[in-house]
């Protein structure tokens, strides 16, 4: 029975590590616990019709909640691993009084100390397998810390790329180039560079799905508000006379279709055209669509 309880704790640890691995290093379409938490927080904020300033905090709060969830599950899992073997399999420092505390409380305390890599030494494993398992928990705690820092450092460059594209589309919408203005070498270069930026954003949404839950600020820097205009630019480019302009416009249209597919499959589930998906994306972020 003791080993069954310890195996239950090990299963919790593996579940947290699996979710961490898939979230940070091997994103999947369906996601896991972290995606469920982020989606729930996003829907709650939208359902409560929170102010834009509050909704803008959903992304950072969701990331902090997910990290807290990972830490909680790992700490609880290791405490359950230790619990059936407490206190017989552990040595306590003289005068600490810890052995007089409830066994579950001692187990949670030891798990907290080990995952934080404090190494206080007032509770020390005495059995061989526990002497191997406890340092392993400290290693997992270090991995969790470094993974969290890496996650934060990696997400903000993706947001910057998204905002750069949004601002560029907002500026283009302000100047609103016609088919004749796009029908030149500069127009082909413009459409090609936009296609490249859209592909980068598409890859970012694939690799960092949590970026969806971040607001971009004002409408001129919000991709949800401006991405629809890229569809109109592609359509204008496809109506041009020059072959190179039509080619790059087709590349932009295909890149937008791929981006719409990712947004629809992972977040929106509309089964609509790219224009309909982008309209749903704008509505989900509380934005008005920038059109022609």
Automatic annotation (TrEMBL):
A GO BP annotation: monoatomic ion transmembrane transport
Membrane-spanning intervals of the chain: 57-84, 136-153
Domain spans labelled Potassium channel: 72-152
InterPro entries: K_chnl_dom
Keyword set includes Transport: yes
UniProt entry keywords in alphabetical sequence: Ion channel, Ion transport, Membrane, Transmembrane, Transmembrane helix, Transport
Alphabetized Pfam families for the sequence: Ion_trans_2 (PF07885)
Organism domain of life: Bacteria
The protein's name in its UniProt record: Two pore domain potassium channel family protein
């Amino acid at each position: 029975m003791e080993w069954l309880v310890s195996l239950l704790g090990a299963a919790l640890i593996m579940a947290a590590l699996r979710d961490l691995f898939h979230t940070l290093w091997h994103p999947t379409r369906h996601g896991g616990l972290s995606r469920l938490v982020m989606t729930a927080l996003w829907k709650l904020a939208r359902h409560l019709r929170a102010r834009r300033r509050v909704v803008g905090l959903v992304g950072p709060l969701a990331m902090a909640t997910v990290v807290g969830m990972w830490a909680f599950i790992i700490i609880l899992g290791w405490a359950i691993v230790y619990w059936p073997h407490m206190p017989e399999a552990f040595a306590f420092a003289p005068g600490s009084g810890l052995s007089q505390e409830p066994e579950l409380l001692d187990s949670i305390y030891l798990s907290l100390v080990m995952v934080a890599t404090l190494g206080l030494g007032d509770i020390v494993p005495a059995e061989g397998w526990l002497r191997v398992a406890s340092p392993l928990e400290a290693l997992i705690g270090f991995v969790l810390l470094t993974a969290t820092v890496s996650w934060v450092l990696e997400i903000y460059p993706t947001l910057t790329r998204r905002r750069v594209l949004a601002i560029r589309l907002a500026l283009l919408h302000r100047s609103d180039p016609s088919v004749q203005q796009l029908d030149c070498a500069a127009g082909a270069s413009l459409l090609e560079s936009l296609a490249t930026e859209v592909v980068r954003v598409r890859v970012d949404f694939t690799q960092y799905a949590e970026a969806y839950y971040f607001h971009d600020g004002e409408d001129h820097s919000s991709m949800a508000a401006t991405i629809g205009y890229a569809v109109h630019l592609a359509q204008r480019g496809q109506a041009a006379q020059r072959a190179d302009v039509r080619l790059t416009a087709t590349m932009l249209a295909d890149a937008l279709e791929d981006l719409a597919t990712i947004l629809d499959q992972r977040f929106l589930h509309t089964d609509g055209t790219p224009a309909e998906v982008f309209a749903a994306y704008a509505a989900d972020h509380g934005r008005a669509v920038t059109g022609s």
